[in-house]
Amino acid sequence: MPLYLEIIICVSLLIGGAFLLIGSYGLVRLPDIYMRLHSPTKASTLGITGVLVASMIFQSHLKGFFSIQELLITLFLLITAPVAANMIAKTALHQRTKSLKDTKGQDLMETIRDREAPTKPPQNP
For 65-96, how does the pLDDT look when each residue is reduced to its tens digit (9 = 90+)? Predict the structure, then answer.
């Protein structure tokens, strides 16, 4: 394997590992659920992307053609992580999970919790 590919793979793994470490630390360190959602959805997604890019480069060199499996996994993670975080935040809001006083948007939380479900418009016969 050429030296430049090894360097690119190592740098990508180091960057991905650093983001994963930061995301894990944030998940443990941040105090409430609303703040904790940022850590796994942002830092950990970037970390997994770095690791998968390194794997894609390595597998592409071994096979001799472009490896698409890692690209599909990365795309799936980039799409599903924000959606999952949004669903967790909505569940926490509707379950009235307490937030800290330092959490921004306290006034918006009550507005979102108490809003009515949209009604269907009347059907024309």
Answer: 888 888 899 899 888 888 888 888 888 888 88
Element (H, E) at 84: helix 69-94
CA angle 32, 38, 41 (to 5 degrees): 130
Name residues whose C-beta falls within 8 Å of residue 112's C-beta, 6 or more positions apart in sequence. 93
Q: Rounded CA gap, 41 and 80, in Å?
A: 9
Tell me the whole-structure pTM to 2 decimals. 0.74
Give domain limits for the chain.
Answer: 3-98+105-112
Amino acid identity, position 121: P
